[in-house]
C-alpha cells in the first residue's frame, strides 16, 4: 500500500510538471521547426543540408517526447465498457504482428469461458502495445511472445473476480535493480532517443485507475512475465467489431 501511494504521488508530481512544461516546449519546437524549413527553402549546400536534416530529426524526437508527456499528463478519464479480452486481442493481432516484426512468434492462448472485464478499450490497447514493444526490444527483435488469458479469483483478495492477461517474453529479463524502478516515470535503460521511460509508468497508472493489479516476474537472462488483473464485468461485451462507428469520445 505504501509503495502504491509513493508511486501515485510520484505520478501526480510528474504529471503536473509535465503538463506545465510540455506546452511551452512544443511552442519552442514549432519555432525551431519553421525556421529550419525556411532555411531549407533558402537553398543550402550539401554539408549544411546534412546538418539541417539532423536538426530536423532532433526536433522531431523532441516533439514526440513532448506529445508523450502531454498524453501522460492529461490522464484522460477512463471510459470503461464491458470487454471480452479474447476479442480485443484478436482485433489487435495484425497490429501486434506488425509492431513485433516477423522474427517474433506470437502465441495467443485464451480461455474458452473467459469473463468480460470492465475496462477502457483504447487505453488497454495502448498498454498492451507498449508492453509488446518492450518485449520486442528485450528480445532483440527475435523470440517468442506468449499472451495468455484466464479467469482469476485471487485468494480472498478484496479485488474479487478478475481476468488475468499475461505476457511472457523470451527476452533478456531484468535484474532486481531494474525491476525495482520499472514503473518510475522517465526510468529507461534504452539508448537516448530510443526510450522515454514513460511506457510502464503509464501502464501502471492505467491498471491502478481501472481497479486492477499488475505483477511482474523477471530474472536477468530468463525472460519476463507481466500479469495484469482487471476486474470482472457482469455486463455483456459488444460483439467483436460492432463497436466501430459508435464509439463515443469524451469532451475532455
Ligand atoms: P522505455 O521502454 O521507454 O525504456 P518503459 O517504462 O516502458 O520505458 O520501461 C522501462 C524499462 O524497463 C526499460 O527501459 C527496460 O529496461 C525495462 N523493461 C520493460 N519491459 C521489459 C521487458 N519485457 N523485458 C526486459 N526489460 C523490460
UniProtKB/TrEMBL annotation:
<feature type="domain" description="Histidine kinase">
    <location>
        <begin position="20"/>
        <end position="234"/>
    </location>
</feature>
<protein>
    <recommendedName>
        <fullName>histidine kinase</fullName>
    </recommendedName>
</protein>
Amino acid at each position: 500500500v505504501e509503495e502504491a501511494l509513493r508511486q501515485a504521488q510520484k505520478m501526480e508530481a510528474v504529471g503536473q510538471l509535465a503538463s506545465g512544461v510540455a506546452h511551452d516546449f512544443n511552442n519552442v519546437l514549432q519555432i525551431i521547426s519553421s525556421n529550419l524549413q525556411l532555411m531549407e527553402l533558402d537553398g543550402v549546400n550539401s554539408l549544411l543540408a546534412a546538418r539541417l536534416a539532423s536538426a530536423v530529426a532532433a526536433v522531431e524526437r523532441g516533439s514526440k517526447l513532448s506529445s508523450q508527456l502531454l498524453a501522460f499528463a492529461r490522464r484522460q478519464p477512463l471510459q470503461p465498457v464491458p470487454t471480452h479480452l479474447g476479442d480485443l486481442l484478436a482485433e489487435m493481432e495484425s497490429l501486434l504482428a506488425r509492431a513485433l516484426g516477423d522474427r517474433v512468434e506470437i502465441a495467443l492462448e485464451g480461455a474458452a469461458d473467459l469473463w468480460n472485464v470492465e475496462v477502457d478499450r483504447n487505453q488497454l490497447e495502448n498498454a498492451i502495445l507498449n508492453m509488446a514493444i518492450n518485449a520486442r526490444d528485450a528480445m532483440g527483435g527475435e523470440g517468442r511472445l506468449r499472451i495468455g488469458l484466464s479467469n482469476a479469483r485471487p485468494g480472498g483478495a478484496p479485488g474479487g473476480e478478475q481476468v488475468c492477461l499475461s505476457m511472457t517474453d523470451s527476452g533478456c529479463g531484468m535484474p532486481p535493480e531494474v525491476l525495482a524502478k520499472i514503473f518510475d516515470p522517465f526510468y529507461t535503460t534504452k539508448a537516448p532517443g530510443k526510450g522515454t521511460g514513460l511506457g510502464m509508468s503509464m501502464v501502471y497508472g492505467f491498471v491502478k485507475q481501472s481497479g486492477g493489479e499488475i505483477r511482474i516476474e523477471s530474472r536477468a537472462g530468463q525472460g519476463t512475465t507481466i500479469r495484469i488483473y482487471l476486474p470482472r464485468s457482469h455486463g455483456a461485451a459488444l460483439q467483436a467489431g460492432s463497436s466501430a462507428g459508435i464509439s463515443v469520445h469524451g469532451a475532455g
